[in-house]
Specification:
Number of domains: 1
CATH superfamily: FAD/NAD(P)-binding domain
Mean pLDDT: 93
Oligomer: single chain
CATH architecture: 3-Layer(bba) Sandwich
Helix content: 25-40%
Largest sheet: 9 strands, mixed
Bound molecules: flavin-adenine dinucleotide
Length: 359
């Protein structure tokens, strides 16, 4: 068994810690955050950066993401889905953290071309089931609140998770891990992590999952994303919706307690300030066009954060003796993390055989 140090307790860092600790490795994790709990609502975007993973909508949508992403991302996502199901089962909890069932891809009639472009790209993922075109009657049976006149396809196999709750559960159930909260790592080097207070921590393997905090050792940019939490207990929504639109890529994700999260903008900016009026108006009007009953929803919260991305928007795994870096998860981090962790651990020749995760 190895002594492993992880810099960064976001999506990747916590998933790695949970998985490696379950295998019996000795794991230490370092993060400048005050603790494992999600930041209080309203705190994200304030002075200290928080993990992008807390802000995410939690869509697990390899098929719909083909609108933005190339086939390798979709394949990583498709490989990750059964792992997420197994991880969700292992983490347990009163409310299921992970749901893998289906989602709907929607377009207004005038945007049929945009929809056909995405559907044509599904050929890049032959392992996924075909999208099912839905008649109005079928749409109504699945989602009674959908606006009439929409084009809709069911994407079997897609899913969603609860990001804040999953991050907390991973940390709480990574038994035996030494958590160093309030501790920023300034450099990740082969076999050691250098902390901001000047201390050096030695390991067999140092893993760098600091997201944007890995700069300047990795060349990365932040891509701003904004989303809105709605409280709409009267609006029935059973599954995530994705609206294809020439200007906006909007999704609506049901959350417990009558909430619906509407996201997300994608802006080439590292501005962490609160969402703009323009983004809020655009996201909410697109959402209202899909679910007209949202007119009386209450706006609970707006949030922005930065997605860590490389120039080509593709993830990177870099391995040299004693050092593993994983980064650039961009807008698909939750979706692809489990398969990427598999590939990274294989590259570093670290055993973490959790057969139950390979359902
Ligand atoms: C608005 C929005 C919506 C999104 N929606 C989705 C979605 O629906 N589905 C999906 O799959 N993905 C989504 N994403 C993307 C996803 O959140 C990211 O891809 C993912 O969080 C990246 O994971 P990570 O572990 O690399 O980085 P992060 O989650 O950002 O974690 C990085 C961690 O490193 C820590 N850190 C930073 N600096 C240091 C340092 N010096 N020392 C130690 N630790 C440090 C941070 O505190 C943080 O905890 C969304 C992102 C945004 C912003």
């Amino acid at each position: 068994m190895a002594r492993i140090g992880i810099a960064g307790a976001g999506v990747l860092g916590r998933l790695l810690a949970w998985r490696l600790a379950r295998t019996g490795h000795t794991v230490s994790v370092f993060d400048p955050a005050a603790g494992p709990q999600p930041p209080a609502v309203g705190q994200i975007g304030a002075a200290a950066p928080h993990a992008a993973g807390f802000t995410a909508a939690g869509m697990l949508s390899p098929i719909a993401e083909l609108d933005h992403a190339d086939a390798p991302i979709a394949r990583l996502g498709w490989r990750s889905l059964p792992r997420w199901r197994a991880i969700g089962d292992a983490l347990g909890g009163d409310e299921p953290l992970v749901r893998v069932n289906d989602s709907l891809l929607l377009a207004h009639g005038s945007d049929r071309g945009a929809a056909q472009r995405v559907l044509a790209r599904l050929d890049a993922l032959p392992e996924a089931p075909r999208a099912e075109a839905l008649t109005r009657v079928q749409q109504h049976a699945l989602e009674p609140a959908l606006a009439p006149g929409l084009l809709a396809w069911r994407l079997p196999g897609e899913g969603q998770l609860l990001p804040r709750e999953t991050l907390l559960a991973l940390a709480q159930q990574a038994h035996g891990v030494q958590w160093h909260w309030g501790c920023a790592i300034t450099q990740a080097q082969p076999g050691r992590l250098l902390a901001a207070d000047g201390t050096a921590h030695a390991f067999d393997l140092a893993i760098d999952t600091r997201g944007l905090g890995a700069r300047p050792e990795l060349v990365l940019r932040g891509v701003r994303g904004e989303l809105v939490w709605l409280h709409a207990p009267g609006v029935a929504l059973a599954r995530p919706l994705r609206l294809l639109h020439p200007r906006h890529r909007v999704y609506l994700v049901p959350r417990p307690g009558g909430r619906i999260v509407v996201g997300a903008s994608e802006i080439e900016s590292e501005d962490r300030s609160p969402p703009s009026l323009r983004s809020a108006v655009e996201l909410l009007s697109a959402a209202h066009s899909v679910l007209p009953e949202l007119a009386e929803a209450r706006i609970e919260h707006l949030e922005s954060n930065l997605r860590p991305a490389r120039a080509d928007n593709a993830p990177v795994i870099e391995h040299a003796a004693g050092l593993l870096r994983i980064n650039g998860l961009f807008r698909h981090g939750w979706l692809i993390a489990p398969a990427l962790v598999d590939d990274a651990l294989a590259a570093a020749d670290i055993a973490a055989p959790l057969e139950t995760l390979h359902a």
